[in-house]
């Protein structure tokens, strides 16, 4: 069997905090246990919020932790054409449709919520006629493109993937993916010509990722990824979902909540070993 390939894929929309350190350390430990190769990928599709100085800081913080990776580092902001090509394949297969709904309209018409607690898209624009679509596109109305998840599901049948535990060599558990619980997800956003779901799937395949480690907060989203892999003819890696570090409020650590960054901790005199201990390594 060829050598296992893993990746660490942070978004440079802030400084790394202890939650990222845990995620990175899990990934590097798994790489060592599997005798694999690990790549760094910078997930900077959000052109408003991602900044080059945060990318530079990610590199410095990981180096400070003593972690190194194989070249090349993949920058998603340089790959919009490749994501557009993948989206076009889905469009040609009649699985993508334009959606003109605003956030407020979706919130008002939502039918329940998705696994992340966001309003579930009720499918309003799925029912637009071709003439209406063309008229609104020509008028220049703000548009995003959604996957017709129901239609996609009808074409793929049962979807499964393998999950392994922390020792990585126990027998994989087979999971059934249920992407329908996410509704018609956005694959091309209004502000950027792709989405997290689309780029992550395209790039995991482009980098040849065989073992994918990520936090449990992204466990449910994996259902969409497995569906997209099937639709685009891409391989499905083996997944490992790691525990999350919780903040004092019981929620997961997040940049948006001002969780202390690794560089703040370093400035306060923390060593890489202090970080390892703090996250249970
Ligand atoms: N870029 C994502 C994040 O920083 C993680 C990507 C993934 O593991 O799929 O949360």
Description of the molecule:
The chain is α/β, with parallel strands linked by helices. It folds into two domains: 1-77 and 245-281, HUPs (Rossmann fold), CATH 3.40.50; 79-205 and 215-237, Rossmann fold (3-Layer(aba) Sandwich), CATH 3.40.50. It contains ten helices and ten strands. The protein has a three-stranded parallel β-sheet. Strands 4-5-8 form a three-stranded antiparallel β-sheet. Strands 6-7 form a two-stranded antiparallel ribbon. β2 (37-42), α2 (52-64) and β3 form a beta-alpha-beta unit. α7 (196-206) crosses α8. The protein starts with a strand and ends with a helix. The relative contact order is 0.19. The mean pLDDT is 95. It binds glutamic acid. Glutamic acid is lined by residues 9-11, 43, 200, 214, 218. One of its GO terms (biological process) is glutamyl-tRNA aminoacylation. Residues 7-272 form the Glutamyl/glutaminyl-tRNA synthetase class Ib catalytic domain. This is Glutamyl-Q tRNA(Asp) synthetase. It comes from Devosia lucknowensis. Pfam families: tRNA-synt_1c (PF00749).
Question: How would you sum up this structure in a few lines?
Answer:
It comes from Devosia lucknowensis. With 281 residues, the protein is an alpha/beta fold. 37% of the residues lie in helices and 16% in strands.
